[in-house]
Amino acid sequence: MRLDKFLKVSRIIKRRTLSKEISESQRVKVNDKVAKPSTKLKIGDIIEIEFGRTKLVVQVNLLKEHVLKDESTMLYTILKEERIEREDSI
Q: Are 22 and 37 spatial neighbours (Cβ–Cβ below 8 Å)?
């Protein structure tokens, strides 16, 4: 399954267009490599996503084309979620 589709189906990112934009801006890594929206995922892959000031690290547990909202968290396990401190230049 493509990375952008997985992020949408798993509801980590709400819209596929947004997941595509985040991937294209090099804010997503799969197994420590910068990933494109078309990167093919497999079970066991580790995904790192930076949104705003948050870094989320998840492991892929299951790949399904469609899941109900209540079942979406079965697709991944959160390994780490941290706030990123950035120094803003004035």
A: no
